[in-house]
Amino acid sequence: MDISGAAYTASFIKQSGITHVFFVPAILKKTLGYLEQVGVKRICTHSEKAAAYMADGYARISGRPGIAMAQSVGASNLAAGLQDAFLAHIPVIACTGRKEFIYQQRNAYQEIDHETMFRPVTKYTMKIDVIEQLPQQLRQAFREAVSGTPRPVHLDILGIAGNTIEEAIVNDQIDIGPEYSQYPAHRPCP
């Protein structure tokens, strides 16, 4: 089945049982459009930290991972907002855009290494550089977020707003297993 990266991502999120995503514009704009079409509510927040906090709260209430998204320039703010989810063992999938390789290490506007910022507040951080990585990395992100000790994970998607991956064509069947989308209900620490 050949569909765009945006349509694939939206379908994957919907089929995993996620009902809301939290974001700061402008990230995965085409995906957000597809999410609306498939019935996933898009909640635009005033800051990246607010998106992280809301995704954390959503995960605690719903028993499913929360999703928080920000473009490249807001990545450090999104990472800062994941501390509570990390310490409380809450699965949040943080998605950021990332400038193309040619702009890395060149002092491009607000472009710094995202992996270094997300490593202390996630259990897994991964880059999606080509469309062929999208299906496997989405599955892995959900698996990592909910398996073992649930915690946030990070997907760093090529394109300042993830647009490079969104516009490409993916050929993969969307196969969501229950192990990717649910985790044991949150229990407060004693």
Topology:
Layout: E1 2-4, H1 5-15, E2 20-23, H2 29-38, E3 41-44, H3 48-62, E4 66-70, H4 75-80, H5 83-87, E5 92-98, H6 114-118, E6 124-128, H7 134-146, E7 153-158, H8 163-167, E8 169-171
Parallel strand pairs: 2-3, 2-4, 4-5, 5-7, 6-7
Antiparallel strand pairs: 1-8
Helix pairs in contact: 1-2
Structure overview:
- With 190 residues, the protein is α/β, with parallel strands linked by helices.
- The chain has helices at 5-15, 29-38, 48-62, 75-80, 83-87, 114-118, 134-146, 163-167; strands spanning 2-4, 20-23, 41-44, 66-70, 92-98, 124-128, 153-158, 169-171.
- A six-stranded parallel sheet has the order 3-2-4-5-7-6, sandwiched between helices. A two-stranded antiparallel sheet has the order 1-8.
- Helix 1 (5-15) packs across helix 2.
- The termini are far apart.
Summarize the structure.
With 190 residues, the chain is α/β, with parallel strands linked by helices. Helices cover 37% and strands 19% of the residues. The relative contact order is 0.20.
Q: Main beta sheet, described?
A: 6 strands, parallel
| Shape field | globular
Helix/strand-derived category reads alpha/beta
Alpha-carbon Rg, integer: 15 Å
Q: Quote the beta fraction.
A: 15-25%
Low-confidence stretches: 186-190
> Quick one: how many beta strands?
8
